[in-house]
Hints:
Blueprint: E1 3-8, H1 16-30, E2 34-39, H2 67-75, E3 79-85, H3 93-102, H4 109-114, E4 119-126, H5 135-147, E5 151-159, H6 170-189
Parallel strand pairs: 1-2, 1-3, 3-4, 4-5
Helix pairs in contact: 1-6
The structure holds flavin mononucleotide.
Flavin mononucleotide is lined by residues 10, 12, 15-18, 85-89, 125-128, 133, 160-161, 163.
Amino acid sequence: xxxxxxxxxxxxxxxxxxxxxxxxxxxxxxxxxxxxxxxxxxxxxxxxxxxxxxxxxxxxxxxxxxxxxxxxxxxxxxxxxxxxxxxxxxxxxxxxxxxxxxxxxxxxxxxxxxxxxxxxxxxxxxxxxxxxxxxxxxxxxxxxxxxxxxxxxxxxxxxxxxxxxxxxxxxxxxxxxxxxxxxxxxxxxx
Length: 190
Ligand SMILES: Cc1cc2nc3c(=O)[nH]c(=O)nc-3n(C[C@H](O)[C@H](O)[C@H](O)COP(=O)(O)O)c2cc1C
């Protein structure tokens, strides 16, 4: 069974990126995948602490929070959806903090083995009317997927600030659903 983990960064449950993730899940489930949604804002994940230069020497000094358990579940996923709004021309801190902590584990064989095996996808929303605003989230996450050696299924970018506004845009949700199906197909091609 293909496993999907959706990392939802917005604290707004039922908001734009959350609804986009739900649509992605519909596509993935229709393709036969098992989907887990994680609301990062419900977890206690601190920003990264001091790290050694040499990856093999690194220790996660803050491993007493929710990070290690979530990372273990992430390692087992075949497909990862990053669902984050644009916050101040960047990724929401809830997701950024989780990703920064990956660096603590970057020298460990299991991490180096697990991360390149995955298919990655992105859903984002932003209030400003220029579609390129979405690149502030999409660009770094696409580059991260590439840096990790994973495959990139694509992204969906919604322009709208109001709570759940994407609900009035079935074409955007259909794009998310199609992205979910495509990500599962790609994961099976591996
Ligand atoms: C803290 C914060 C920062 C934001 N920064 C930006 C921004 O830099 N550019 C932008 O276009 N929209 C910005 N927005 C608007 C959100 O990206 C927009 O409302 C989005 O639809 C929220 O997605 P959500 O419903 O999934 O939370 C910001 C919103 C918040 C709360």
